[in-house]
Every structure is written in structure tokens, then in C-alpha cells.
Specification:
mainly beta; 5-stranded antiparallel beta sheet; globular
């Protein structure tokens, strides 16, 4: 979820709620935001199995690209963030106040609300290997006008490119790799995906498969 709307008060907290750090976006390390910079939609693909979108801008003075894939049926969101060589980004993920962290290791953060889980897994690219070093912290978000709550935020380690997988409904989404393709086991079945650094997911969209046959396990 986002940090939300709190008020129109002229306070440091209100200024934070409208900053990039209060949203689920990549922030370029050591660079200042150029407010008002437009973000362009440069690719999209919508099928019965999935939706894919690709965005780019220069809001931090360098090219910043985000590709997003949302699966239908087998719930999965994959997000690929990247900046040019020589720069680094960190992306943020704000979770609902009802979710608490139950595990954080090897690039995988598991949160739970009772018996319901969600897993965030971050991978290095192009290797597809787990990317560890996440910062997990508690921040105050707004649930409405002058209403606040404590919530968990996950901040990725600095990298030129980060592939984030968010899998609802499981604490153990098996992720396997074969060549340049990943297969993710979700409660709704396996999802296979391949990404391209220049195309994102749009032209190499994942297919919902039933067998999930792969060669190398990423654990």
C-alpha cells in the first residue's frame, strides 16, 4: 500500500507522505528528485493470463526504468527496476499494517496476517540469484484524514537492477531457474517468466504452466 493521505497540514510528516520514499517506487541513490518530471509508458501488453507495463523517466537525472508484470489466476507480481551502469537504485515496498515480518533472509522477506502469508523475493539481474541485504523498518502511514498506523517497509539493497517478486498466499514460493527463465510456484500454480533488459516483460511475457519443469533451484 501507499503512505496514504493524512492532511494538508504544513508538517514534515505531510511532506514525507508525498515524497517518493512514501511510495512503492525505485529511488536513485545519491541523486535528487526533479519534481514535475514526466514518466512515460513505453510498452504494454494485456492478455488473458497477464498484464505487462514498462515505464521510464529521468526524474533523478539518469534513466530510470520500471517493468511490471501482474499475473491473472496464479497471483504474482514481478517488478524489474533498473538504472544505467554507474548509478544505483533502492526500491521501497510498504505493506499493510495488519502484516508483520516473520522471516527475513537471503533476499526473501515473509510477512503474515494470522495464517495468511505474503512473500517478497528480490533477485539480482541478469543472474536471477537471490539479492540479500534488505532493510526492514517500521514507518507511520496514513489510513485517512489524521489517522495513522505503524506499517512495515522493505527497502532493497543498492543495485543497478533489482527484480522483485511478490507472491501472495504463501511463505515458501519455490523459485527455480533454467537459463534465462524463472519459474515461480504460487498457490494458484506455476508461473514462468523471462525478462529482457531492453524490453522488460511485455514482449517476453510469462506463460502460466502446469508442470514447472526447470533445472536449477534458486533458494
Amino acid at each position: 500500500m501507499e503512505a496514504g493521505f493524512h492532511s494538508y497540514q504544513r508538517t514534515a510528516y505531510r511532506r514525507w507522505t508525498i515524497s517518493p520514499e512514501a511510495h512503492n517506487v525505485p529511488v536513485v541513490v545519491g541523486a535528487d528528485l526533479r519534481e514535475g518530471t514526466a514518466t512515460r509508458l513505453v510498452g504494454s501488453s494485456v492478455t488473458q493470463a497477464r498484464q505487462c507495463y514498462r515505464f521510464t523517466d529521468t526524474a533523478y537525472g539518469v534513466g530510470r526504468t520500471r517493468s511490471v508484470l501482474v499475473g491473472h489466476g496464479a497471483d504474482l507480481m514481478a517488478v524489474l527496476d533498473s538504472v544505467p551502469a554507474g548509478s544505483a537504485l533502492r526500491n521501497l515496498w510498504h505493506f499493510a499494517p495488519s502484516l508483520t515480518v516473520v522471516a527475513n533472509r537471503d533476499g526473501q522477506v515473509v510477512l503474515a496476517d494470522g495464517e495468511w502469508w505474503v512473500t517478497l523475493l528480490q533477485l539480482a539481474t541478469p543472474s536471477g540469484r537471490p539479492l540479500g541485504g534488505q532493510t526492514v523498518r517500521t514507518e507511520t502511514i496514513a489510513l485517512g484524514h489524521l489517522r495513522q498506523a505503524e506499517a512495515t517497509t522493505v527497502l532493497s539493497p543498492p543495485a543497478e537492477s533489482v527484480l522483485t517478486l511478490i507472491v501472495p498466499g504463501t511463505a515458501d514460493p519455490e523459485v527455480t531457474r533454467s537459463g534465462g527463465r524463472l519459474s515461480v510456484r504460487t498457490p494458484g500454480g506455476h508461473v514462468s517468466l523471462r525478462w529482457d533488459p531492453d524490453l522488460g516483460f511485455a514482449d517476453r511475457a510469462p506463460a502460466h504452466s502446469g508442470d514447472g519443469q526447470v533445472k536449477t533451484t534458486v533458494r
